[in-house]
Amino acid sequence: MSEDYSKMKKKYTYKKLEEIGEKVIDWCKNEFGSSKHYNDYPYVVFEFDEEGICGEFFPHNNQIIICTPALDSIEEFIETIIHEYIHYMQSKTWFTRYSNPPYRKNELTAEEFVDYLLRGDPTHPYEIEADKVAKRNWKKCKNEALK
Known about the structure:
Layout: H1 3-11, H2 14-32, E1 43-47, E2 55-58, E3 63-67, H3 74-89, H4 92-99, H5 110-119, H6 125-145
Parallel strand pairs: 1-3
Antiparallel strand pairs: 2-3
Helix pairs in contact: 2-3, 2-6, 3-6
């Protein structure tokens, strides 16, 4: 667990992080709408013990898991929720297609592979899109959802 998370944990209780997370999810629903690939909005779980990945979207059961110990700040917490929500919006069929040749042009370096294990494939078009949308929108989300 990072020192920064300990600072975040001192500022936000688990209950408060869960409340903030629900507000961010509601903001995502209003901002981005529902996915055309799923019948329902995703089920969201906030893990407070799990370390490693920051968050993950599981398409087989339409679930987002956010692992708070892996996150260092409230900004990263908000970005991660938005990032995973964008994965919910994306086509799982194309996600798989982009993960395989001919779309994958080169092998990952050792550093990219570690990042892949922790955060997904940094060269995958869906990861790039989710990162861009999250970075572009986290401040707007924070200002509107957490006022």
